[in-house]
Here is the input.
Amino acid sequence: MVAKNLKKFLKEKRVKFETKRHKETYTAQEIAGTSHTPGDEFAKVVVAKAKEGFFMAVLPASYRIDMKKLKSAVGSKGSISIASEKEFKGMFPDCSVGAMPPFGSIYNLPVIADRSLAQDEKIAFNAGTHKEIMKMNFNDFREIEKPRIGDFAIHV
Here is the structure.
């Protein structure tokens, strides 16, 4: 079932979205394949931590994070690292662990999205479970979430 906070948030913002069920999968690339979504359009969420606190890094499933570029894009004064599931498990109470959507504002987390996501009209992302995704226009995502846009991902 779609995360309650996510569905409520999108309805309040009057944003058009569609949901799609798929076979239970866990990695972003597997979800993209199972849901017949191009890897460049599937937005995966990586929870990272900096001296300043936790944040969400959002990038295409077919990309990986360049940590030096991410640190620069975030403007952190100290080191940054990828948070473990144990560290962020309680931050998303209405989501399955690792299936959080790219809407940090719902969970009081800042969001940085890689510039490459803006190249496609639509994005897809986990909807709080490992069996369901949502699709929406990238411009709607940018308008309602207001993520910082940066250059920190490398195509693999």
In short: Residues 4-12 form the longest helix (9 residues). The chain has one domain: 4-155. Residues 100 and 128 are 5 Å apart (CA to CA).
